[in-house]
Write a structure and sequence with these properties.
The protein has 295 residues and is α/β, with parallel strands linked by helices. It is built from twelve helices and nine strands. Strand 6, helix 8 and strand 7 form a beta-alpha-beta unit. The longest helix has 16 residues. Pfam families: Amidohydro_2 (PF04909).
């Protein structure tokens, strides 16, 4: 497989694999006021960023949608997340509306440990949410919080995946790492989870969770790229990465639009691993299609 070295080469990449396009499991769309605030935080290299991180695709919502469609990205979530109480329910309402007007969007929701979280999470599931974004680093909360125990149970029972930033990259807090989220999985072993960034930098610990729980997936977001804000992936885990990918449990993720390089670079980096075309097909389409229930 030829590695795509520019965005213009992305369609030829997936066409060469015989795929109908790409499914990106880690894409951010959110209300513009919140998106602008996130971009401002990146501009300032805030305490949770830890490095200079220029945003490459700082475009309007319409331009970003057109860009993804032009690349051949056929499905993506609108990952959004609260950083304080009182935000999540309104974000879920916005995300439902976004998914209703953007056919490629996998309807997304989120939550925060606060009064009423069980009720509004249940309403989001009933309204069609197919993935929940949970950002333990930005949210700064303990996934083991008592308010969240029934929420994790709701998601486990519904088979709705939670895409969780649980790794300590780029900056740790007391609730990141495989320990706290591992305790959630021990209580809810049927919970379908997607660990963002392959769990960077605690790759070993999160791969161990994937070995223990068959519903744990991992996304590739920003790993293997030349951007060093997270952590280098250990070569010793490449055989396990290959096996999990072929099993449909490694998903393409990019962090679009909040990336400091071309979109194509993530695909180029994955192709350069040399894990084979079948692995790339599984990561870029078949695994996320199965997980999100896409045709």
């Amino acid at each position: 497989m030829v590695e795509p070295r520019s965005d213009s080469a992305v369609p030829a990449f997936w066409q060469g694999l015989g795929l109908p396009g790409l499914i990106d499991a880690h894409v951010h769309f959110m209300p513009q006021r919140l998106m602008s605030a996130v971009w401002g935080y990146f501009d300032e290299a805030g305490p949770l960023i830890g490095a200079e991180w220029p945003i490459r695709y700082r475009d309007s919502e319409e331009e970003r949608l057109a860009f993804l469609r032009g690349l051949g990205v056929r499905a993506f979530p609108s990952l959004l997340y609260p950083h304080r109480p009182g935000m999540a329910e309104s974000l879920n309402e916005w995300a439902a509306g976004f998914a209703a007007r953007v056919p490629e969007c996998v309807q997304t929701a989120t939550f925060f440990p606060e009064p009423g979280v069980e009720e509004y999470t249940g309403r989001a599931v009933e309204a069609g949410a197919r993935v929940f974004k949970v950002h333990l680093q930005v949210g700064g909360f303990d996934p083991r919080a008592k308010e969240l125990d029934p929420v994790w149970g709701t998601l486990a029972d519904a088979g709705v995946p939670a895409l969780v930033h649980a790794g300590s990259g780029p900056v740790a807090n007391g609730y990141t790492g495989p320990g706290p989220f591992g305790e959630v999985l021990a209580r809810h072993p049927r919970l379908t989870a997607i660990v963002a960034h392959l769990g960077a930098p605690e790759f070993d610990g999160f791969f161990a969770l994937a070995d223990r729980y068959e519903s744990v997936h991992l996304d590739t977001t920003m790993i293997f790229t030349r951007f060093a804000a997270l952590a280098p992936f250990p070569n010793a885990l490449l055989p396990r990465l290959r096996d999990l990918g072929l099993a449909g449990r490694v998903l393409l993720g990019t962090d679009f639009p909040n990336i400091p390089y071309e979109y194509a670079h993530q695909l180029e980096s994955l192709a350069a691993l040399g894990l084979g075309d079948d692995w790339l097909r599984a990561v870029c389409w078949h695994g996320p299609a199965r997980l999100f229930g896409l045709a």
